[in-house]
Amino acid sequence: xxxxxxxxxxxxxPYSVLERTRSVAWTCFCRATVYELYEGGGRAFLRRTVQLDxxxxxxxxxxxxxxxxxxxxxxxxxxxxx
Length: 82
Fold this sequence. Notes:
- By secondary structure, the chain is mainly β.
- It has a domain of 51 residues.
- The chain contains one helix and five strands.
- Strands 1, 2, 3, 4 and 5 form a five-stranded antiparallel sheet that branches.
- Strand 3 and strand 4 form a beta hairpin.
């Protein structure tokens, strides 16, 4: 559930900065919106995929240090960020 005082994340179009990243955490693909945490090369980002009837829309946060991305990931899951 989204909290009243949540932080709004900036979602951008995907870009290929890191060659080797891997999804290390994700929400259920049974939902219309899926969130994933990607890590690689000491950096991380969050990916949001909105599954639409005509395809899907992917957006990502900017690159962050892994520790900071994990804090944002926890905030996202608890409704303190969106």
